[in-house]
């Protein structure tokens, strides 16, 4: 049984001390293999590679001798033949399996008092003899050859797997490797795309099958290599994992990422039309809610679409948005969530915020220290993630309470409600900031903190969100290790409402851009009563904070589908330079109305994407 040796060992046989330390070279079956009888014929000579020598700097004959005419007892697997007579030119026969263990050898010949070195290594196009050997022609140089020996050798430490190119956007994944004399191999990919997508990291799993004269026994960990990838394998295994860098950024339309994001859930018939419309618009990402994924027929529609799938994952937004104890969450937890507490001592609900909806009950935010609720939310995403092969997960409501949808340019910054001042959050803040907080009620504690430690409070909130993102992604990646991540970002610039993006929402884009692969500000300009240029202003502001660390893709809302000129203008502004693309929110509107209205909306989006 062959034995794969680890480590690069080059032994220069110079001096008696090194001779004493030189280990015997092992043959294909180990150090104690008795050499078999080997002959040299005319066909072997015709297959010989001609090796050009170099003048050696050696001053003595040190190394493992190779005996004449076929009996290389000191070096099993190597045989030297004189041609046509002793001390004339020679031929070296090396058993092919020797090159499973050794990268190369230095064969040294002695002619009178002069030494010559020959580099012996298998050539790419070299032909094996009928009895499984490589043959090398060793010419004499100036005088007769007195003897030959192996003076140096290099042990193979890795073995390359060939035939797998680095994934490139719109390339085709290979399914097999280049066959070698040692093994064949098949390749599977994650994500499993028929064509490589944009800005996506691909992992190839390579399953090698050994040929009869090769084995994975004694193969060390991380023995195999794949060009352009970080390759790993377990000891004694032919299963290799190759992790490639992300494909280049820049999708199908003018180098932009085009994201389709439905809101209203649909049954499979209209949902198929929505997905096909997304493809028509050149979408290369599709953001979707879990309950849409799990509707009958939808996993198949999504899988067959060929678009990268991203699951929308609301975090601190209470999915039931009710206070009754029979809600889904209440039944799962055995209680209602711990609602965040604002500085006014009231729950973090929409009703007391600027410009709430008529009943003010849509937005209710959970305390970020309710870890039991957080774990419940993480688990709630997994059924959808298991139903399809997702490229990424998009975290929404990963922030402190702020009803940003109701803010306007003229909104008083002090009217934005700060949170969370529950006992758990205040205690944690005091420990992290190393301060003492006075007060009995939430209102008193909030007033003390905001008056005396406003900057530390903002830092605490931003750090809390950052660490929560780290925790969420780590937990989800235990089962789905290759998921990328996107942030649904609050659409405030750095200076809006006295720095409310960090002060109130707790979203520090400099920190979060180191966690996420993409950032999508929710620039709903029609809802926010802002001009289309505002969409690009928000994107530019985020880029000014994070640089080119990750793509920024602002959002255009399509739900007010009859406002075609405004939608077209919004798309144009969303894809202006600095932005990396656009999220088309309410994409289901392209399949939810009359045929003429659907077509008019699609054409308005297409004009916006084309920039004309």
Task: Please supply descriptive tags for the structure shown above.
612 residues; alpha/beta; TIM Barrel; eight-stranded parallel beta sheet; 23 strands
Describe this structure in words.
Residues 1-35 and 249-253 have low confidence and may be disordered. The chain has 612 residues and is an alpha/beta fold. The radius of gyration is 34 Å and the shape is elongated. It has helices at residues 16-21, 42-46, 98-101, 268-280, 290-293, 298-305, 328-333, 371-387, 423-433, 442-452, 454-476, 500-503, 509-512, 525-528, 533-546, 564-574, 595-610, and strands at residues 49-50, 54-55, 64-65, 78-83, 89-95, 102-111, 114-120, 133-138, 147-155, 159-161, 183-190, 203-210, 224-226, 230-233, 239-243, 257-261, 285-289, 308-314, 392-396, 484-489, 518-521, 555-557, 581-585. Helix 4 links the parallel strand 16 and strand 17 (285-289). The chain has 17 helices and 23 strands. It has three domains: 16-155, no CATH class; 159-243, no CATH class; 257-321 and 368-409 and 462-610, Alpha-Beta Barrel (TIM Barrel).
């Amino acid at each position: 049984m062959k034995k794969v040796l680890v480590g690069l060992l080059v032994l220069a046989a110079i001096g008696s001390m090194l001779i004493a330390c030189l280990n015997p070279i092992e043959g294909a079956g180990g150090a104690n293999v008795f050499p078999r009888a080997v002959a040299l014929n005319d066909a072997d000579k015709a297959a010989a590679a001609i090796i050009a020598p170099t003048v050696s700097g050696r001053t003595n004959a040190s190394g493992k001798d190779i005996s004449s005419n076929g009996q290389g007892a000191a070096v099993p697997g190597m045989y030297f033949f004189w041609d046509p007579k002793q001390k004339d030119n020679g031929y070296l026969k090396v058993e092919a399996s020797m090159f499973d263990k050794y990268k190369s050898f230095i064969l040294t010949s002695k002619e009178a008092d002069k030494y010559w070195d020959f580099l012996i290594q298998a050539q790419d196009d070299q032909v094996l003899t009928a009895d499984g050997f490589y043959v090398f022609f060793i010419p004499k140089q100036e005088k007769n050859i007195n003897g030959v020996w192996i003076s140096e050798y290099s042990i193979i430490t890795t073995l390359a797997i060939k035939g797998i190119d680095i994934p490139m956007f719109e390339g085709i994944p290979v399914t097999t490797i280049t066959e070698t004399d040692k093994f064949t191999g098949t390749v599977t990919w994650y994500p499993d795309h028929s064509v490589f997508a944009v800005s996506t990291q691909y992992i190839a799993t390579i399953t090698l099958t050994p040929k009869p004269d090769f084995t994975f026994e004694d193969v060390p960990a991380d023995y195999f290599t794949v060009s352009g990838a970080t390759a790993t394998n377990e000891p004694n295994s032919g299963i290799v994992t190759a992790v490639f860098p992300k494909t280049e950024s820049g999708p199908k339309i003018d180098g932009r990422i085009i994201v389709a994001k439905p809101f209203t859930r649909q049954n499979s018939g209209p949902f198929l039309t929505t997905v096909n419309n997304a493809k028509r618009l050149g979408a290369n990402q599709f953001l979707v809610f879990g309950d849409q994924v799990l509707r009958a027929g939808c996993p198949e529609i999504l899988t067959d679409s060929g678009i990268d799938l991203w699951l929308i994952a609301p975090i601190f937004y209470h999915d039931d948005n009710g206070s009754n104890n029979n809600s889904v969450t209440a039944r799962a937890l055995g209680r209602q969530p711990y609602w965040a507490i604002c500085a006014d001592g009231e729950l973090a609900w929409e009703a007391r915020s600027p410009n709430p909806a008529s009943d003010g009950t849509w937005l209710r935010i959970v305390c970020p220290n309710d870890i039991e609720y957080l774990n419940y939310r993480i688990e709630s995403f997994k059924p959808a993630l298991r139903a399809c092969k997702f490229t990424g997960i998009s975290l929404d409501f990963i922030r402190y309470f702020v009803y940003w949808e109701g803010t306007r340019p003229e909104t008083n910054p002090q009217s934005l409600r700060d949170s969370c001042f529950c006992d758990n959050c205040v205690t944690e803040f005091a420990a992290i900031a190393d301060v003492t907080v006075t007060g009995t009620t939430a209102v008193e504690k909030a007033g003390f903190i905001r008056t005396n430690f406003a900057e530390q409070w903002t830092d605490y909130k931003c750090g809390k969100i950052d660490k929560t993102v780290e925790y969420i992604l780590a937990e989800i990646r235990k089962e789905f290790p290759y998921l990328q991540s996107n942030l649904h970002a609050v659409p405030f610039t750095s200076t809006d409402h006295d720095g409310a993006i960090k002060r109130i929402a707790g979203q520090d884009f400099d920190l979060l851009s180191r966690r996420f692969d993409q950032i999508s500000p929710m620039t709903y300009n029609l809802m926010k009563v802002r001009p289309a240029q505002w969409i690009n202003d928000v994107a530019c502001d985020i880029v000014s904070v994070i640089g080119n660390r990750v793509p920024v893709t602002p959002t255009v809302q399509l739900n007010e589908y009859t406002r075609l000129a405004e939608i077209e203008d919004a798309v144009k502004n969303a894809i202006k330079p600095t932005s990396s693309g656009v999220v088309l929110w309410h994409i289901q509107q392209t399949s939810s109305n009359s045929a003429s209205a659907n077509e008019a909306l699609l054409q308005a989006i297409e004009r916006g994407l084309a920039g004309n």
